[in-house]
Design a protein that fits this description.
Elements: H1 2-16, H2 27-38, H3 42-45, H4 48-57, E1 77-83, H5 90-99, E2 105-108, H6 110-115, H7 117-125, E3 129-132, H8 145-163, E4 169-170, H9 179-187, E5 191-193, E6 197-198, H10 201-204, H11 207-217, E7 223-227, H12 231-234, H13 237-246, E8 250-252, H14 254-257, E9 266-267
Parallel strand pairs: 1-2, 1-7, 1-8, 2-3, 4-5, 5-9, 6-7
Nickel (II) ion is lined by residues 83-84, 133, 137, 173.
Amino acid sequence: MRKRCVAILVTGCLLLNPAMASAQLPAEVREPLKNGYASLPAEIRNNPAVKNTARQWGIAPKPRPVTLRAKDDCSNCVALTFDDGPVAHTAEVLDLLQDRGARASFFVAAGNAQRHAALVRAMASSSMTVGNHTVSHRELDKLSHEEVVNELARTNAVISSLTGSSPRWMRPPYGAFNDTVAKAAGDQGLAVAMWDVDTLDWKYKDPQRTCRVAVDEAKAGSIVLMHDIHATTVDAVACIVDGLRKKGLEPVSLDQLFQKPVPGKVYTKKD
Ligand code: NI
């Protein structure tokens, strides 16, 4: 209960009193605030306004310096991708990536994006790629051209309104697409992101297995499929980032792996 009170107090101060941000807090005040900040739910802790102020106060860990380990031509890059979110614990995925200076891509469903708008904004502001994963999550190859256009356009509009820019990528639910889908995607400025490494994280729900498959099967240029709606996938993220780096590979966003994706083109990996 006490912990909870401190957490609420900290959030209130961080949000309402940014003028204090530059103040030097005495150590005896800073320590309890630090604990209070750490006990906030990840979604609040990762709100950019809260996090930045907390960092200025010295009560949130400083971001690790982002050593861009990706080579200039991205020849050691691997694109980690997370579908179907965001949900509340997507904040933890973002946290884990940011703390390691790693990047990834999130294919968001329109409804979830609206429900967790702050998270979508946080993705964009931390240089993650935000992609289109439709409104209804139906198999697009079974829909009419008009329905596909509608699914993509509505999701593009949601993402644009939150991030300020139209997405460059879409991922068809279940990987189901045909020429109609690719054409509709192309018409809306979207490249089609498939994958060459399928972790089957949704099926096994086993963080060790998800990590092992992602790290073992990824090669330079790979696109790795995962789903941030599963807590067991969140639990694999740190292991994956560290494991890839041990192999000399760097987790990046799709926008880093492919500088100029061609709308309508289908990408399974970078050759
Ligand atoms: Ni999906």
